[in-house]
Structures are given as structure tokens and as C-alpha cells.
Design brief:
The chain has 14 helices and 20 strands. It is α+β, with helices and mostly antiparallel strands. It starts with about 25 loop residues before the first helix and ends in a 9-residue tail after the last helix. The strands form four sheets. Strands 1-2-5-4-13 form a five-stranded antiparallel β-sheet. Strands 3-14-15-12-11 form a five-stranded antiparallel β-sheet. Bound molecules: iron/sulfur cluster (SF4). Catalyzes the reduction of sulfite to sulfide, a step in the biosynthesis of sulfur-containing amino acids and cofactors. Its cofactor is [4Fe-4S] cluster. Its EC number is 1.8.7.1. Keywords: 4Fe-4S, Heme, Iron, Iron-sulfur, Metal-binding, Oxidoreductase, Thioether bond.
Length: about 550
Amino acid sequence: MTTPTRASSRPQRGEGQWALGYREPLNPNERMKKDSDGLEVRQRILDIYQYTGFNGIDPSDLRGRMRWMGLYTQRAQGIPGGKTAVLEPEELEDSYFMLRVRIDGGQLSADQLRVIAGIATEFGRNVADVTDRQNVQLHWIRIEDVPTIWERLEAVGLGTTEACGDTPRVMLNCPLAGILEDEVIDATDVVTETVAKYVGSPEFSNLPRKWKTSMSGCVDHCTGHEINDVSFVGVVNEDGQAGYDLWVGGGLSTNPKLAQRLGVFVRPDEVTEVWAAVTSVFRDYGYRRQRNRARIKFLMADWGPEKFRQVLQDEFLHRALPDGPAPAPARHDQRDHVGVMRQKDGANAVGFALRTGRTSGSELAAVAELAERFGAGRIRTTAQQKLVILDVPDEKVEDLVAELAVHDLQVRPSAFRRGTMACTGLEFCKLAIVETKHFAQEVYRELEKRLPDFDEPVAININGCPNSCARFQTADIGFKGSMVRDDSGEMVEGFQVHLGGHLGIDAAFGRKFRGHKVTKDETADYCERVLRGYLDRREPGERFAA
Ligand code: SF4
């Protein structure tokens, strides 16, 4: 095994790795980050842009650094998907932003949720989305209102710093960390420590691209460690000590890769340091020449886990980590923590489905009120666009289930509603080709009518473009938004279908079959055909897997 040499031996054509001497920016994004660190945009919002409004924002801040503060320009209403590829970014946007509130580990108090709800109601036209990374995303935000929004969020310990951008984004943890009896380890402290030390730090505010972290001891692997850039997965070593197995290099988008185990055991008190070392490998050796090769999965594909471990230990940790065991397989088929779950203190956690993550400020305020009335005011967001209310005594569970149902929040949803996720899509996303949030709701409602008795776990993930924010490659039936030809030869909104994706012990990405393209109108029919085919052919005890 050879360790790459630093600046002294520069390869003929590098990929922009800082550690090999490529410090001069090799593309406009790298130039933007070098000219002014992304975090510096916060002060300009406070000092300048809140007064100038949208039209006074410097373009490199507007479409670049704003993301470091969780802000994306929003797609203008009424622009069809067929225009996405032909219009310039400025032609696709209106004067509003999407704003992502980071909720590390998905842990919220009722007061915090009420503040988010109030912001959505007052500044965001009462629209909110619970994302599949445990965030809440708001829409229709004006730059003039951002300082007030930050004040309100920060007053309750929330924020938007590095919720997007080439930075350490929200860190996932099991929403039931510290709550369930059977977890391997509670990762709450290591998430809290790592966030406190490194989020907003200039040390990691210029990474090659986004940096997705998961730290969890969940027995169901609910945070999807296989598809995060860096994951600490709860394990118990041969001495009976609980700690973490380190995985690096997962990611979806247009070139999906599963994370690799480095084979090391990380003690809880080492996690923050090891996370910083892995992040430093990415910062210094990550590819910066081409944006579409700037995720760590490409470095891992070239190096492999052995070399990655060696470089991590030799150059960044300056010590060897001990070997460690692999995690046990997930205990249950579904990773979403929907339903009524027994807490180790004897109370109950009550998880429920929204409508493919879509909610509103008024609904979130109602959830905060229910969490206080039926529990102890603790709420969790999941990595499957769901919510959980904690600490509900046995005698109050069914009353809470009924109250949630009044708001169309389902503790016992159909398999289709439970298993359907959708990304932001054409409604607000400038990259989208297809509308997704409302359409996904139509699909699951239609399937509920057509297959009322279907009760197997099934994942149907609907995405508005190839970027796979709602993970089409890991679904039983995954839909990737694209323009497709209908029967009359017209190009219309539709999907390329990917079948049979799943995470877990035999994780695999869904396969794209030639000719499996559907228009939006054909989508429910297609799902019904696949699901009926399974029902007709299944062997006793066989679970659905497309
Ligand atoms: Fe936007 Fe595409 Fe991501 Fe959907 S998958 S939110 S359309 S970038």
C-alpha cells in the first residue's frame, strides 16, 4: 500500500486535491469559496442584503454562499419541467428563498417546534416540509425577514448555519436515541459534541462538496449509514464495550455508491476527533477539479477502504485505530419508527406519517401542543420524513392517536402512505423536471383505493430529477423524474423506474430496466401492476421486494 505523497510530487493531471498542491481554484465554485468563505455571507445579510432586498444581492452570494446559511433561491412558479435544462438559473428563480433549519439528531422541544411553526406561518405562507435528513425546510422566505427568523431560531437553540453548502450538514441520529431499550448505544452526546465543536468552524467551511454525517446506535439502522459520506454505526466489541464502526464514502445522486467499512472500532470519546480526521481527509484529498467528482465516494472508489484507513491513521490521527466488528443486521423491516414503540422508561414513543413530509406551520404548532398535552414536550424528526412524539403514558396513547388523526397525521398509515417519500420537486426546486410532493400523495391515495388490503412494507420514492434527494436507488420502486414521451409522441413529465433497491445486509441499488419509463398518468397503474404481480406470485412468508 502506498500513501499519496503531498505537494512535492504533483501528478500530471490532478483532481484539485489540496494535499497534492492544487491550491489554485480550478472551477468557478472553488473560486467563489476562495474569494470569500461561505460563512461570511451571514454578516452581509445582516449588514446589507436585508436592506437592499433580493435585487441587491451579489450573484456569487445569491447562488453560492447563501447556501452556507441554509438558503437556496426558490424556483419561480409556473415554469414547466421541460424548461429546466434550457433556462439560465436566474430565469428559473423568483425573489424568494427556501430555508433549511438544521435539526441535528432530529431532536426538538415543543418550544423549538412552535418557533419553527410560527416562522412558517408568519414568513413562509404556512408551508413546511420535514425532510429525509431530519431538517425542516421552509419556503417563500424573503431576505428581508432572515435576520428576524435567525433571532427567533437562535433564541431557542436552533439555526441554519451550514444547513446546505460544501460543509458539514445536519448530522443524523436515531430519533429514538436514548429512548428505546434495545439500542446498541445512544449517540446523542457524540452528535452534540461534534456539532458544537465543528459546525460553523472555518476549519471545515470549505470542503470539496456537501458532507453528510450519521452517528447512530439504532438497531434498525434508521439513519441509512450505507448512503452517508461518513457514518459511525453502533457496535459492541469483543470486550463487551459499546462504540462505533466507521463507514465512509456512501452517496446517491447520479453515481451512487455504498459506504465502505474501514474496519476500525471507535470509542465514544474518540468520535469527534475521528470525525474531524475523516473530514480533514476529505477536505485535503477530496477532488475539487470537477464538481461532479467532488464527493468522497469518488476518492473512496479510487483508494479503497484499506488505503483510506492508512492515510487517516498515518497523516491525520497519528495513531492506529483497533480493528472492530461489523454492525449486526437491522432488526426490523422498516426503519422509520412509525407506530407505537415502548420506551425503556415504560412510556411510549408515538411515530406518525405526514403527507410525504409536507406539513404546515399551523399543523406543526398543533403537534407541539399535542406533545405537551400527551407527553413531556419532546418531538423527533426521522430520516424518512416522519415525526415522533415521546413520553406518552399507556393510558393516553389511543387519545393521542385519535387527536393526530384529526389533523390527518397517521400513526397506523397504509403501507403506501408510510412507504412513500418525495423530494421537494418542481414546486420549489430549480433543478426539478417533475412535480413530486403533491403527485406522490395522489399516488399513495390511489394505491390505497386499488389495493386496500396490501400491508407489506414497501418503499416508493418519488424524485423530481436524477439528484435523488428522496433516494430512488434505495426504494423497492424508485422514480427518477425526467421528460418522457407519451402515446401521442409528446414529451411530458414522467419517470424512469428503478426496481428492487434496498439497504441492509445485502444492500443493493434498484435496477433500471430498459423501457421502464412512465408518464405521470401511468405511474399509479405501473405501481399496481408491480404490486399485484408480487401478490400473485409470492411464496408463503415472502416479503415484498420488487
Ligand atoms: Fe430538486 Fe432533484 Fe433534489 Fe428533487 S431530487 S429536490 S428535484 S434536486
